[in-house]
Design brief:
Keywords: DNA-binding. GO terms for molecular function: DNA binding. It holds the Pfam family HTH_34. It is a single chain. This protein has a single domain, classed as Winged helix-like DNA-binding domain superfamily/Winged helix DNA-binding domain (Arc Repressor Mutant, subunit A, Orthogonal Bundle), CATH 1.10.10.10. The two termini are about 15 Å apart. The protein is about 55% helix and about 20% strand. The longest helix has 18 residues. The chain is an alpha+beta fold. It is elongated and about 55 Å long. About 20% of the residues are buried. It has a 3-stranded antiparallel beta sheet with strand order 1-3-2. Strand 2 and strand 3 form a beta hairpin.
Length: about 90
Amino acid sequence: MFKELDPLLHSQLRLAIMSLLISVEEADFVFIREKTNASAGNLSVQIDKLSEAGYINVNKFIDGKRPRTMCKITKKGIEAFDSYVKVLREYIGK
């Protein structure tokens, strides 16, 4: 019997966000938007969902006159991502 894939990470955009964040120390909202080709509104909603789950930390601040949003994966997020990949490997028999 297969374990269930984490429904929070099973979303294409949320999985893309987590995949980006696991490979960097932190990432700017604009960088994530450019890499995922997501609209700002949709990306913002998905980042909020990941943040509410404790998978990422979000730091919003003003840089000069420009608002910035920085995202960083948490230990809980790394564990959830690793678990998701492990279950996915079980599904494909690797």
